[in-house]
Design brief:
266 residues, alpha/beta, seven-stranded mixed beta sheet, 8 helices, 44% helix, 19% strand
Length: 266
């Protein structure tokens, strides 16, 4: 059985993303061990830093929370080391996103919640990947950070496993076991790894770095994350061309890539 660690990330009211880190036992051991070693390295060089500190990407990047007293140079070094740890592992990463403004413009009040829409899309990508990786009897278990919509997410996964849902999935999901499991990210290096990868691909897609040093550091981190990224895709519904809503539409709409060329590897 493979484990799938997922995390969500937004960019203001413009984009919504879900990232999924797909791992086997070897990848879990490698990432956990290396993340702990990186935390110990920071603690050995930054007075007051606690080795069990969470690698929360927003705080790490902006120097907030537990990372407020960590110098910029060490925060950059940490981000690069974390990205290297992911790059050197056997993990695979998937990113799915929704262009929220295009989605609202197309569907208005009929638009489905972005959280559930993007969750459906990333789970379908994961299901497809598991079908390629393993024999039919093998399954994947999905784990996520605790959040307020856990009940809705579990209910939605149950629906996705029973049958395809128009506008959400193209077919029933068959390779995901049981339900969604939620836990605290500060206790899980693997959830932190999913958060880290999702945050940096979100930022690369949605923010133009004004500081050349930040741009260089982000580009290096993103390059390493993309080396394990097998699918990176953003939904952007086309404007409605008729006054009649398409039959069966649930807010998926036509799709075009929001920025750049669709990434689909392996």
């Amino acid at each position: 059985m493979r484990l799938v660690f997922i995390d969500e990330s937004a960019r203001d009211d413009a984009y919504y993303f879900f990232g999924a880190l797909i791992v086997d036992a070897e990848a879990v051991r490698s990432i956990e061990r290396t993340f702990d070693e990186i935390a110990a390295l920071v603690a050995a060089n930054v007075p007051g830093f606690v080795p069990s500190t969470e690698f929360h990407a927003v705080d790490l990047f902006h120097g907030k929370g537990a990372w407020c007293s960590v110098p910029l140079g060490w925060r950059i070094k940490t981000a690069r080391l974390l990205a290297k740890a992911l790059q050197r592992s056997s993990a695979a990463f998937v990113l799915r996103g929704v262009d929220l403004r295009a989605h609202r413009a197309r569907y208005g009040s009929a638009a489905y919640p972005a959280h559930l829409l993007t969750l459906a899309q990333v789970l379908e990508e994961v299901d497809d990947r598991l079908r390629l990786l393993d024999q039919p009897e093998e399954l994947g278990l999905v784990l996520a950070d605790e959040h307020h919509s856990a009940a809705n997410a579990r209910r939605s996964l149950r629906d996705f496993k029973v049958a395809s849902v128009p506008g959400y999935t193209n077919r029933a999901l068959t390779r995901i076991a049981d339900t969604l499991y939620f836990g605290p990210s500060h206790e899980s290096r693997m959830l932190q790894a999913a958060d880290f990868a999702t945050f940096f691909l979100n930022r690369d897609r949605t923010i133009a770095e004004s500081d050349p040093r930040a741009a260089k550091a982000v580009a290096d981190v993103v390059r390493r994350i993309r080396s394990i990224t097998i699918r990176e895709y953003v939904w952007c519904p086309e404007p409605q061309r008729t006054t009649q809503r398409p039959a069966g539409g649930r807010g998926a709409g036509e799709v075009r890539e929001a920025r750049g060329v669709l990434r689909d590897r392996g």
